[in-house]
Amino acid sequence: MLIEIFGPGCAKCHETEKLARAVLNEAGLDAQVAKVTDFKDMTARGVFATPAVAVDGALKCSGRVPSRKELLAWFGK
Amino acid sequence: MKLLETGREANRGCSCAGGKCPAGEPVAPSGGGTLKGRLALIVALAFVWWFVYGMLPAFAGYLAYDLLGLARGSRLGGAAEFFFYDTPKVLMLLLLVVYGVGVVRSFFTPARTRRLLAGKSEAAGNVMAALLGTVTPFCSCSAVPLFMGFLSAGVPLGVTFSFLIAAPMVNEVAVGLLYVLLGWKVAALYMGTGLAVAIVAGFVIGRLNMERHLEDWVRAARPNLAAAGAAEPDEPEPDWAGRLDAGTRAVRDIVGKVWPWVVAGIAVGAGIHGYVPEGVLSAIMGKSAWWSVPAAVALGVPMYSNAAGIVPVVQALLEKGASLGTVLAFMMSVIALSLPEMVILRKVLKMRLLCVFVGVVGLGILLVGYLFNMVL
Predict the structure, then answer these.
(1) In this complex, which of A9, A27, A48 lies closest to B149 when CB atoms are compared?
(2) A36 CB burial (10 A radius; 0-12, 13-18, 19+)
(3) Is it the case that residue B23 has pLDDT exceeding 80?
């Protein structure tokens, strides 16, 4: 599973990344977490608000920090 | 994908899968609970708020004169009383304003704003963009993706600028604080003129045909933007419990972040209140000094303060004889034009367009300052 966190590196983006890692850990899931910080890459992927999260290439949310519950659902738990 | 079925919540069904989850639910839900439970808590907290707020003047006097033993009528005593009264007062009012704003903002998202602005003609689009700029929540580091999103929806460049100017300038926290500290007239003037500057400046930039001064990668990406936008997820609409939680989250995020600015602002305000003699400012910041408005703008642009921190300073300056136009111009240039924002916008705008942006907005603020000094 590939989890991408989109954001230039602001507080909310860090919060999202931390939360995603914590949820993965708790659920005992093994996944690769990648950060996308380049605006050009974000634009190409249709990310028009940060922070955004994509799982296996599909965008799940943008413009907010997702909840624990949402993350678990996206991770297939 | 490796699944280890060890998690406690592994077999628990999740309502989010159906897309019924309130958007941006708090990271750690405060006990879950129902709408009724939240409303009861809000009413209880409102009573406590009201009670504490009524005690503040007595509390400030006691702290400054009895506990610290400062002499009544002395400069230090006056400054201390101002500080001890204003700090809790402004913070409590801020709490109220931010909570309300948080709830209102849950009705708007950048994606919805973009849809509303797509296909709008220029003049009407500028007006709408400026209004939406005041209420659409977006993280300041999201400005570039937001800009690209607007382009993807075919929002004209000038309309996009109206949004980008209004968003920081007509800060709803500043409007709320001006209203409670200085009355509805000042708040309405600030809001009205801020919107006017955003509308006119955006319109002017749109007329200048600056498209070729967008960065090259922006222009290269433009034809493919609509296709990229198809990947955007649909955000679920929050229910009322979710909206109230959005208010709570706004309080935690915003008040948690701006309180040092507010305290610093009040300390400066207290110093002005206690030590600057009555009327002294009218010579330098009054109507008669023609150069005071450009000086205020020149001073304000490189300065950066949170909107909530600048309001107590404004209050103290006005009290000592500074004129409203000069003070409004100062406040607008401090919060609307800031170095961090320029650095972010430079990623999508070439230097020339960035300078035009600063120039047009700065000129607009200047005119507002002169206008009020002349009329009032």
Answers:
(1) A48
(2) buried
(3) no
